[in-house]
Task: structure prediction
Amino acid sequence: MTTAARFDLKMDADEKAIVAKAAALMGTTMAGFVRVAAKEKAQLLLDREARLTLTERDFTAFARALDSAFAPNPALKAALTQARRKVRRA
Result:
């Protein structure tokens, strides 16, 4: 069972009238309409911000970098050597 959390919202009369009309068209309460609309908008924003969009040029450069052979630099080689000395494998 989940507990309900309160969220109070103040709006002017014009905004309330618009929301009331939209809620009536959807056959729901104003609170239900606002809750669903806010959740949908929030999810769209979160989904958009979670994606990384590259231009075709940037994607080509990224793919080329992934496909090219990796050569570790001296600092990485030293770190790997040090780690091998400290880590014992079972």
Q: What stands out?
A: The mean pLDDT is 92.
